Amino acid sequence: MAEAVSTFLIERSIPKELVIFLISMMPFLELRGGLVAAALLDIKFIEAFVICFVGNIIPVPFILLFIRKIFHILKKTKTLSGPITRLEERSMKKGAKVKRWRDWGLLFFVAIPFPGTGGWTGALIAALLDIRIKRSLPIIAVGILIAGIIMSVITYFVPHIFGF
């Protein structure tokens, strides 16, 4: 698998570092997917960690600042009104514990690498709950850092223990 991906990238002259950076910026994949890809592409741990962290954190301030306005505009269209409303509802449902535990809830929500958690969703929840950017951005950044540590152990260190 890793060989096929490497061959695909080499044939197209796409730097591996750019690939993991872009993966880390994508919702649902984020830093977690970027670190897995980095391990498969044999990118050194420290380099991969920094690239994936930066890639994951870049969209967060924009989400915190603009997502409510963007959602408001998109809800005015027939085709996007339903999906946006469902996304808001699903995010608020996930955000129930964040609302209850506020800062700690947001931190753990972003930090624990489960599907549907992470910086993107954490920023969306923080924006929908009106948690100010001065407060939410550092919490989300620390959550991404913790998720990165957890995923680094899983993708870089555990496989070496078992000889992979």
* Broad structural category: mainly alpha
| Estimated helix fraction | over 70%
- How far apart the termini lie comes to 14 Å
Number of strands: 0
Helix and strand sequence: HHHHHHHHH
- Major sheet description: none
Number of helices: 9
Into which percentage range does the β-strand content fall?
under 5%
Report the uncertain regions.
none
Which value, in Å, is the CA radius of gyration?
A: 17 Å
Q: What shape does the CA trace take? A: globular
Number of domains: 1
User: What is the averaged pLDDT score?
Assistant: 90
Sequence-ordered SSE layout with sheet pairings:
Layout: H1 2-12, H2 16-25, H3 30-40, H4 45-57, H5 59-74, H6 78-94, H7 96-111, H8 119-128, H9 133-161
In short:
With 164 residues, the chain is an all-alpha fold. It has one domain (2-161). Helix content is 81%, strand content 0%.
